[in-house]
């Protein structure tokens, strides 16, 4: 049991980090990073998301709130808005513009329908506790910082860190000062080469593969050279390299120096979400040489972050929790070389044929499907009315047609999900956890393993979003005052993180929390 409350809760999230990866490469990490956490903390070796829609916003929201999509409202990174007839971003908020850009729609946590652990900490202390969120991605920063925190993220327009008027009217001085250094632009012409000896990599012969999708001039083989910083795509492409995490680290170190989290009496909360692993995994695939080298570099970045926190606050006064928002599946080409039949079906090539099948079935000229927003198909309710077809009839027909396609394992209708009319299977439960009555579509599509269904075929070598272990199994490690050094193989879930932090600090669980308290972390004899 911990003697006192910690000065700081440090939540580290690595975007797209699978649980098996840390274990497989453990001996190759340096001191102070993953090895420190594993050797000082409680490792939950069997942590698995309970929702089927393993996307970035969903995973971050589950870590933040202890809920599933049903509770926290994040059904994906974006979804189809029926009233506006357009895809909306999960954090889109016209009322909260960027403080330094006018070209993009603003961002805020307003669409998150649950409080977060950080919110509850602030509420419990009357605002004495503070919350900060940092990430390359807006959703990596905003969701965990909560409504009451301050969030900062990387701008693909400027290469600087930015925020919106939800948090600040203008950038704080220390943010301006960090931005003035223009660190992102300084990577122009730099080379990403291997950190260790080439022969030491498990992926030694997996560098040059035709299905890898490079960004800009980064190319698909080592050494990767960053292009000219004046090119229009430079700041966007930079994310597809370990340098994105170096920038996140540097910005976080500036935050620690300026805001002094954990050094003002009350317990503060600092969330850092590292995104490079996700970008690199998407571009090159999880078993690539690039992904392996990025992992070794991520370990160094985490070690540097822990060292900064140790210096400023003391790790003995800090509760650290590390997890991930989702994993990733192997590219169908890679699994194909080892005997698994898989494939890729893009949104456009899938939507046309299904619309045809449905129109033929109902003998109508109307196009009955309005949109596919992964993982859901949305019916066009106006077209259904014009054709005199009931929504439930159309759902059932659509679900029956879509499972006939290659790469589709199952489909669930909105009506069955609303009414709980589901088989008693783990898959059905995970789809129910992914469902939100107002935001989900009419038919939830479940792809076969090794298949990428309904995604942008040009964009990525690999992706995630399924309920399979590759996407759902993530690391979960706690380290800090009173947390024993042990490994736990009992099944747990990332939704247990927020209620566990709440129990540890003696504050309310978030409003949407349905997770369990992990007893090893909290200890015994708490009042
Ligand atoms: Zn991703």
Q: Assign the CATH architecture of the largest domain.
A: 3-Layer(aba) Sandwich
Low-confidence stretches: none
For the termini, the CA-CA separation is 11 Å
Mean pLDDT: 95
Per the principal axes of the C-alpha atoms, what is the gross shape? Answer: globular
Estimated helix fraction? 25-40%
CATH superfamily of the largest domain: Alkaline Phosphatase, subunit A
Strand content: 15-25%
Oligomer: single chain
The domain count comes to: 2
Count up the helices.
20
Radius of gyration (CA) equals 23 Å
| Structural class by sheet pairing and helices | alpha/beta
CATH topology of the largest domain: Alkaline Phosphatase, subunit A
Number of strands: 21
Describe the strand arrangement of the main beta sheet, using strand numbers: 8-7-6-11-1-12-20-2-21
Q: Given this structure, which CATH class of the largest domain is correct?
A: Alpha Beta
* Biggest β-sheet description: 9 strands, mixed
What compounds are bound to the protein?
Answer: zinc ion
Can you walk me through this structure?
With 527 residues, the chain is α/β, with parallel strands linked by helices. Helix 3 runs parallel beside helix 6 (138-145) and helix 9 runs parallel beside helix 11 (289-312). The N and C termini lie close together (11 Å). The structure holds zinc ion (ZN).
Give structural attributes.
single chain; 527 residues; Alkaline Phosphatase, subunit A; Gyrase A, domain 2; 2 domains; nine-stranded mixed β-sheet; four-stranded antiparallel β-sheet; 20 helices; 21 strands; 34% helix; binds zinc ion
